[in-house]
Structures are given as C-alpha cells and as structure tokens.
Amino acid sequence: MPCSSLSFKDIAEGALPPLSTDTPTTDSPTATYPIVDLIICSFALHLVESPSELFSLLWELSSKARWLVILAPHKKPEIKDGWGWSKWNVDTWESTRMVDNVPEILNDRCV
Question: Would you give the DSSP letter of residue 81?
C-alpha cells in the first residue's frame, strides 16, 4: 500500500488528493470523489500542537472518510463535538457525545 509524504498541516490545508483509483462522479470541475471507508491514525494525533490545527485536520479528514479510528496511549487528542466526527459507543453501536465517558476499548473475541 503506497504511503504519502503529506504532513498533518498539508492535509489540513486541503492537499489530500483523491485515491489514484477514484474517478469523478460527473464531468463537472467540482465533482466529488468517493469517500474512503476508514482512516486509522496510530499514535500520532497527539502531536498536533494547537486545537485550531487539530480542528482543521479533523474537518478535512471528515470530508474524505466515513470512519476515523484513533489509537492513542492516553486521552489526547481531545476531539470536540462539531469538529466533523461523532464518537461511537462500540458497546451499544450508536453515536454518543464526545464528552460522554463510554468504553473506548475494542476486544477481539477468542474463538
């Protein structure tokens, strides 16, 4: 799987290109591209220094993907309601407020 050299700042500024296999849905110059199903950000979002930079990054990613999985060793980053994402309660499989203290750990079944 090819990787990009874009930084978080580049992505926040709209530099994230469509996937090479994506094609416009119309011939219009403002055509939209298919949404990516899942973005996984592992041990990295806490490196974004300011809340405004984090907002810009998350908002841009929300226009490109359906799901965002954040793997982090602690509660950072703090993502607020209105930043383009909904927190998902994996126990009840429904959306919840960002400030709700719901379980955030997924366990794989052992079968």
Answer: T
